[in-house]
Structures are given as C-alpha cells and as structure tokens.
Amino acid sequence: MNKVENVLVVAAGKAINELTCGAAQIGSRVTLVYAGARDSAMNSDKAYYLGDRPFFSCGPAAAKLALAEKPQLVLLDSSKDSLLVASHIAAAFGTSVQTNTASILVGDGIITDKLVYGGAAVKTEKSSGAAVVCVSPGVFSQGAANAVADISDVLCEGDERIKVLETRAKAASSVNLSLAKKIVGVGRGLADEEALKMCRSFAESIGAELGCTRPICEERSWMEKERYIGVSGAVVQPECYIAVGISGQVQHIVGINKSGTIIAIDKNEAAPIFKSCDYGIVGDLHKIVPQLQQLIEE
C-alpha cells in the first residue's frame, strides 16, 4: 500500500488508539496532537499535548500545529467536537473537511470514499493538497498502545469566543461495537420491549453484544445511539452477526457487510436481508430466538 510522508492525528480520549493505528497504515510518520490525559499519547513518532481541556476549544492551536507540521493528511473522528476542530484546520489549509469517510487510499493524492443517498451510492473525493478527514466509526481497528517518547507541551489558549457555561455528566456507554466479535442486531420486527429483553438474553448466552437499527434507538428509544449500526451509525466487522427482525435496507447493510458470517431471522421470506446473509431462517423471531437459546444452553 502506498503511503504519505506524514499523517497528523488530532484527537482526544478513546479515538486516539483507533486513529493512530489507522494513520500508521497510511503514513510513514505519525504525529499526534491531543488533549485530555497527558499519558494517553500512543502509537506516534511525535506528540503535541494541548492540556487537559475541552477538545472543542483546541481548534486554533491544532490549526497552528498542522500548518507547522505540513502533513499530507489530517485525521480526526466524526464526533461533534472533532468536526469543530477540523473546521479550524481545514480553514487554515484553505480546504474543506471531508466527513463520514468510509475508506482512505493513497494514490495520486489522498482518495476517500463516503456513502451518500442513504448508502445507495459511494462518493469518491480526491485531494491534491492536504486532506482534512473525519472518519466514520469502525473504519480503523484498535491495536496495541505503544508509548510515545517525544511529547511536547503546547500552550493552548483556545477560542475566547467559546466559553464553557456548564458541564453535565453523561451516562457512559459500556459498548464498543467496532471491537465486538459477535453481535446480535435487532430491528423493527420486534413486537415490544419484552422481545428486546428476549434478544438481550440470547445475546448474553452466546457472548455477543446487542446492536440495533436506527428506528430502535431514534423512533422507539429502546436502546442508546451507541448501539445503532448503519450508514450514519457504527460500521462493524464481527466474526458473526445475527440479524433479528431486520428487513435489511441498504442503510443497515453497509454497516454490517464486513462481517465474517451473517445469520438472518425474519418472518418475511422476501426481506432484502436474505440476499446479504450466509444463513437465513424464515419464521417468527419470537419463537425461533428462544428455541435457539435453549439449544445453545443445552
């Protein structure tokens, strides 16, 4: 695979591992600009520490460092804070931010792909200069956390126009679907929340994480958004994915098509999911799932 000379990763928290591991695949040299805990730097040749401060306030400082480092590619995740920081960097380079990127290749410039029209098409973009790219969750895999020897502390004054008025604790999610080896995904085919409990029990019995389609978390509010799999949610690649009551619209399929084995359970034999799965079971999920769990536990 072709590589660029220098990839600049701008991140905080859990995103640092995934982005630096991905950057190592694309660049001969990886430089990290980060905020938060000082000891969270990893997998880079050099790092600039902006302090234990809100990441969204690091845009101006990150932009200055990016101009000084002259990277061919700047990598961030797709969180709201990262999009704001990316806008500062892109403006400094006189370019635009590429968002929700699904793949990155190095050829005659930086070539990126992203899903558009609800996953029905792929948009390819090519950058002749520095590319500022916010990648979708799961594009890169996490790896070992290798310590960084060269860390420089940088004074980060932030943007005086932005002030923190209040901080509220957010309930932490224990799920990271991009790392899961087994996932049970649930969709609109579930009749009620009792069916969801049944599927959660089934997932626990096989050591799987529980994921869902967009309507389950946004329309029914049964599950948190971190468990949403699809074009604007998580992109997963487990060894085994079991789709329960999921029709298989393209918006969901693009989030699971890298799975090793896909098993589908749905009452509609014409459901699109059966064209994308390795094994399919046509029938009432409310009867099939308990039977499968009983067989496994026996």
Characterization of the model:
There is one protein chain. The chain is an alpha/beta fold and 298 residues long. The protein folds into 2 domains: 4-153, HUPs (Rossmann fold, 3-Layer(aba) Sandwich); 177-297, TPP-binding domain (Rossmann fold, 3-Layer(aba) Sandwich). It contains 7 helices and 15 strands. The chain has helices at residues 15-26, 59-69, 80-93, 193-205, 214-218, 250-256, 285-297, and strands at 4-12, 27-35, 46-49, 73-77, 97-101, 103-107, 109-116, 121-127, 131-135, 151-153, 182-186, 209-212, 240-244, 261-266, 279-282. Helix 2 packs across helix 3 and helix 4 runs parallel beside helix 7. 43% of the residues are buried.
CATH architecture of the largest domain: 3-Layer(aba) Sandwich
Mean pLDDT: 92
**Total count of domains:** 2
Please give the order of strands in the largest beta sheet: 5-9-4-1-2-3-10
Task: Identify the overall geometry.
Answer: elongated
Please estimate the helix content.
25-40%
